[in-house]
Every structure is written in C-alpha cells, then in structure tokens.
Amino acid sequence: MSPEQQNNAQAQLPQVDGERPALGRLHQQFPEAILASHSYRGDDTISVAGDSLLPIMQFLRETPELSFETLMDLTAVDYLKMGKSPRFEVVYHLYSLTHNHRLRVKVPLPEDLPEVDSLTSLWKIADWYEREVWDMFGIKFRGHPDLRRLLMYEEFEGHPLRKDYPKSRRQPIVAQRT
Amino acid sequence: MGVGEFITSKLDHAVGWARKYSIFQYPFITACCGMEYMGVACSHYDIDRFGAGFPRFTPRQSDVLFVVGTISHKMAPVLKTIYEQMCEPKWVVAFGVCTCTGGFYDNYSTVQGIDTVIPVDLYIPGCPPRPESVLDGLMLLQEKIQNQKQEILPKAKWRETQSSVSRLL
Ligand code: SF4
Q1: How high is the pLDDT of residue A16?
Q2: Number of domains chain A contains
Q3: pTM, 2 dp
Q4: Which pLDDT score, from 0 to 100, does residue A154 have?
Q5: Distance (Å) from the alpha carbon of B54 to chain A's nearest alpha carbon
Q6: Ligand 1 midpoint to CA B30 (Å)
Q7: Testing the interface with A: which of B72, B73, B114 to mutate, by most A Cβ within 10 A?
Q8: Among B83, B84, B108, which would you mutate to test the A interface (most chain A Cβ atoms within 10 Å of its Cβ)?
Q9: What is the CATH number of the domain that holds A89?
Q10: B168 CB contacts (<8 Å, ≥6 apart)?
C-alpha cells in the first residue's frame, strides 16, 4: 500500500462509538500494524500486518469493552486471478457474545511466504480451521500444534483451492486406511 | 438339442428367475440421491413389488450394490472394499449422475464415475433419478440377471474356494 493510500485510510478513521468501538481502539493501540480499515452498514473490517496478528487478536479478545470471545470463522482467499497483490489473504471473523458485536480481520500474505501465526493459543477452534486452510490453500500457521491436512488425504498433492490448481487434475485413488 | 443341454438351459432359466426376484440390495448411500432411494423404497413406489424390497446392511448378505450419491476420492477405497466383500453373484447399480460420471462435480474431490473403481452393471442417470426411472432400471437389471449365464460353482471348485476362505480366516 502506498503512503498516500495509507493516509486515506487514516483520514477515514471511524469515530470511537459506544456500540462498536473495535476499529477505533485498534487504531489507537496499533497504529503501525493497521493497513486499512472500513466500516459499511455496521460491518467492520480491518486489515492488519501478519507479524502483529497475535498481539492484536489477544488485545481484541482480552480487552473488556471488546471481549471477542468467539472465533466464528477462519478462511482464506486466493486473489491470483483478480490481479491483487499480495496474493493471499487470511480472513478471521470475530464475535463478542458479551457485547453482541462483530469484527472481520484480514491479513494479506505474499505468495512466496504464505505464513502467519497460529491462533490456537487463543481459540482452540482455530486448530481445525487452520488445518483446513493449510489443506486447501497451503498457508502455513506458525506454532500450530499439528498442522496436517484436514479434508484431503495425506497422499494428496497440492492445495486444491489455490486458483492455479488445475480444475481437471485427478489424483490416484489410494488404498483404504484401517 | 440333447437332454443334458435341455436340462442345463432350463436350470439356468429357473435360477435366473429365482435370482431376479430375490434381490437383496446393499444401499451405499452417501448423498442427496438417498432421499430418492427412500422414495422408491417406501409404499408409494414400493420397490418390494419387484422382489427387491429387502435392503441388507451388510455386503456379505447382499446381491446388488446400490451406489447412491456422490463418491469422493476418500470414499472410493471404502466402496471398493464393500464391493469385494460381497459374495458372487453380484451386481452393481450406479444410482444418480454423480455415480455415473461424477455429474457436475467436475473437481478435485469427486470420483468421475464409480466405474473407474468397480465394475458397474446398470447406470441410472438423473439428479436425482425419478423413482420411475429407478424402477425402470431395476427391471432392466432383472432382465440382465434373467438372461445371463447362471454361474453355479461345481463342487470341486466350491471346495477349493472354501479352503481358500478358511485359509484367509
Ligand atoms: S446425482 Fe444429484 S441428487 Fe444424486 S447425489 Fe449427485 S447431486 Fe445428489
């Protein structure tokens, strides 16, 4: 992102409001880590740098007025055919049961090093989500206790939801596991 | 025609008749086609009228393997094992377009037709097939069973199979 775009993002800083303070608090707390943010009809989205994901998530979870206890979803997007750079983006959806608010956190990841910190230390559910994203997109999660494929079998080669995985590629059928 | 030949052909006919009206099926149901299978099995269409109303939930007791629903690459080895566990004579029905060709699941996870894994006797296309076409298919299968050569193992061969089975056990 160019400095100009960054300034734009800064200029559109949402106000800290009573109901959904997450974006404002993050901008206050982690000014350098935030790449972009926007809010549309009550839908808050923030894009953060990969190396500060863990402290940001911990902050979101543990600050009492935010308390995002639930990791509702964790997935990834491959922007290969949309010409976006960097190529990958990991998307987290958080929900606070206490305050009934939501937040979407995105982490852009480059093609040559698709790696990000694992959130298993904060949310147990991240375990299988991260395994699924590893399986489908080949994005590695540093510090994951057991990063194996979740849906495909071990002999499967490649990551089928990457946009450069050939649609018609078929892999041999393996023997049954007992 | 000699007397021997006459008897064999009549015996073949009788065995075929018995076999085609006592189809014990093994429903291998993995996806949405299962609903349609239930529709065929229930009283409205009543597959029992064709002597095939008795699903066995073990492959060792069944004659016809109904493969109903999408088969993924992970499921394929299981399907193969089930097929191998069935006793001869056995037939396989591919129920629904997913099992025939993979259907619209032209992707990394779906087997493109179960005939890449096991031999298939009858294909019933449709997504899902109407109960009428299932019954039509069933009657075609009965025709096939009736008209084929009925393999009955001679005693010596039978003993051989028995001993190889007991060796396995
Ligand atoms: S053929 Fe259609 S109805 Fe049957 S399993 Fe496939 S998708 Fe489902």
Answers
A1: 42
A2: 1
A3: 0.78
A4: 87
A5: 28
A6: 9
A7: B73
A8: B108
A9: 3.30.460.80
A10: none
CA separation, residue B87 to residues A119, B65, B117, B121, B145 (Å): 51, 11, 18, 16, 15
Q: Nearest-CA residue of chain B relative to A159?
A: B108
Number of cross-chain residue pairs from A and B with Cβ atoms under 8 Å apart: 33
Query: Once rounded to an integer, what is the mean pLDDT over residues A119-139?
Result: 93
pLDDT per residue over A57-112, tens digit each? 999 999 988 899 999 999 999 999 888 889 999 999 999 998 888 999 999 999 99
- Is residue A129 assigned to a domain? no
Domain carrying residue A95: 3-121
Residue A47 lies in a domain: yes
For B103-122, the pLDDT digits (tens) are 889 888 899 989 999 999 99
Quote ipTM for the complex: 0.70
pLDDT above 70: residue B61: yes
Instruction: For residues B141 and B9, give the distance between their C-alpha atoms in angstroms, rounded to a whole number.
Output: 20
By DSSP bridging, strand A115-117 and strand A101-109 are: unpaired
Distance from CA of B78 to the nearest CA of A (A): 6
| A51 falls within a domain | yes
The whole-number pLDDT of residue B169 equals 52
Interchain contact, A173 vs B77, CB within 8 Å: yes
Token pair for residue B25?
Answer: 């099926």
Which residue is closest to B107 within chain A, CA to CA? A167
A22 occurs within a structural domain:
yes
Tokens describing residue A90: 């990991």
Residue A43 phi/psi, 5° resolution? -105, 110
